[in-house]
Amino acid sequence: MIKTNELIEEAILLPVELRAQIIDKLLQSLNPSQKEIDKLWAKEAEKRVEEIRSGKVKTISGEEVFKKILK
After folding, report:
1. Can you give the residue range of the structural domain that contains 46?
2. What's the structural domain count of the chain?
3. CB 11 within 8 A of CB 19
4. What is the dihedral of CA 37, 42, 45, 50, to 10 degrees?
5. Which of 18, 26, 40, 57 could be stapled to 14 by a disulfide with Cβ–Cβ 3.0 to 4.6 Å?
6. What's the CA gap between 21 and 10, in Å, rounded?
7. What is the DSSP letter of 56?
8. Are residues 39 and 26 in the same domain?
9. Which bin fits 59, alpha (ψ -120 to 50), beta or left (φ > 0)?
10. Each residue's pLDDT tens digit, 9-63
11. Are residues 39 and 64 in the same domain?
12. Distance between CA 62 and CA 25 in Å, rounded?
């Protein structure tokens, strides 16, 4: 069986695209997708974007948010 350090050294030598694919798969294995929850979050995000575009809600800059937090 290949040792961890050897595996890492071999992986580093791979082309960038392949390393990115491996990283993506490893991250997915740590945090598997929950399709129903993902769909609900996507729907909520679309709703919020529409509220911003329509002017229904006012945005606040990150800088302003952090100023309020620090007070």
Report:
1. 34-71
2. 2
3. yes
4. -140
5. 18
6. 15
7. S
8. no
9. beta
10. 999 999 999 999 999 999 989 988 788 998 999 999 999 999 999 999 999 999 9
11. yes
12. 32
